[in-house]
Amino acid sequence: MSNNLKTFDKTFWKIFLPFLFVIMVVLFFPYWLTQFNLFEFGFSDKPGEIGDAIGGTIGPFVAIAAAILTFFAFWVQYKANEQQKTDLKIERFENKFYELLRLHRSNLDEMNISDRVVGRKCFIRLFNELRYCYMIVNDQYESGSEADKKLYERHHIDKLTFAYTIFFYGIGINSEKQFLNNFNEAEKNLYKDCKKVMIKYQEKYVKCKQNKPDLRYYTMDIPVSNDENERTKVFYYQPFDGHADRLGHYFRHLFQTVKYIEEQKESLLDSKLKYSYIKTLRAQLSNHEQLMLYYNSSAWFSDKWKLFFTEYRLIKNLPLGLADFGIKPEEKYKEDIANLRARGIQMFE
User: Fold this and answer.
1) Exposed end of the chain (fewer CB within 10 Å): N or C?
2) Is 348 a domain residue?
């Protein structure tokens, strides 16, 4: 909270000092009335009459003293009322904030992929699928003909954004209605090649499930790169069917929660308190949730999330070693990391 809630703050002194000045002027009235005779109007210079004059002026000063005390009492009551209003505003804010947290946890608990992966563990599998999707896109991009590569370079295809779009919506007739018309010539050409590989994954998953329906996951050996360590893939559900219904709602709610905190007036929550509430929200996010949040931002909403990532360190616990495809966090936020380090702050642990 700001210093505006102090009882004797700057506003008090701005009001009280002029008031005190007027009181001090009034205190000199007896002297002026008894020592000066302006316009032939004044008091007698006889001691008795002067005493009566001074005595007659004491009453107002007693009233003035009472007025000063009343002013102090009024001001203290006024600040108490302001404090009460602020406390009520904070209480309303916290009630909504913790309700948003409850909804976030509810969204997480209700997350379910094909009744095979539920809750927080979904983000581990989702991250792996996104990584596989990126590997397929990168491999098809790099293995294309010279003509294809020139086409891709001319249209400046962002491989991460492209891969995330396919991962988010999935492949298939209904899924493609949501993004294929927005693809340019180069992206449609690359998508055609990527889709062929992804369909092989889906077909192999279906076959594995038919042969061994009781297994929790299925291991596939479909090479998508020259790295031998990347040949084996593990799937708990049929891949590349899309996750728009799950992740769209999850990320929208998360964004509205952090935005709700950040938009509070500085007079109610200063930057330290805002960071404290966002830190509480961050504590609800697993490392893989932060990974998926980072890639969601990098692919589509970089500008919208940047303030929350840098100033409020919403992805402070991001496991940097796993964020090894697309643009790496250390590169993307290189300048921000340097600026924070100059202030003695680490953006990532």
Assistant:
1) C
2) no
162 and 189 together in one domain: yes
Domain for residue 349, yes or no?
no
Q: Do residues 205 and 156 make contact, with C-beta atoms less than 8 angstroms apart?
A: no
**pLDDT over 90 for what percent of the chain?**
68
Same domain, 256 and 231: no
Query: Whose structure tokens read 């004797």?
Result: 8
Single residue among 185, 210, 235 that ends a domain in this structure: 235
Domain of 276, in residue numbers? 244-342
Does 225 share its domain with 264?
A: no
Task: Indicate the range of 130-139, 178-187, 230-239, 327-336 predicted with least confidence.
Answer: 230-239
CA atoms of 86 and 279, how far apart (whole Å): 22
Q: Which residues of 268-303 are buried (b: 16+ CB within 10 A; e: fewer)?
A: ebeeebbbebbeebbeebeebbbbbbbbbbbbeeee
Alpha helices (runs of H) in the chain, residue ranges in sequence order? 10-27, 29-35, 47-109, 122-142, 146-154, 159-169, 173-176, 185-211, 244-262, 271-282, 287-299, 302-310, 329-332, 334-342
pLDDT of residue 192: 96
Residue with tokens 């294809």: 148
Residues 162 and 211 in one domain: yes
In a domain? residue 206: yes
Give the chain's length. Answer: 349
Q: How far apart (Å, rounded) are the C-alpha atoms in residues 250 and 328?
A: 23
Q: How far apart are CA 105 and CA 111, in angstroms?
A: 10
Q: What is the pLDDT of residue 179?
A: 95
Burial of 306 (0-12, 13-18, 19+ CB in 10 A): middle
Boundary of a domain, candidates 49, 83, 109:
109
Tell me the two tokens of residue 319. Answer: 């496991």
The domain tally of the chain equals 3
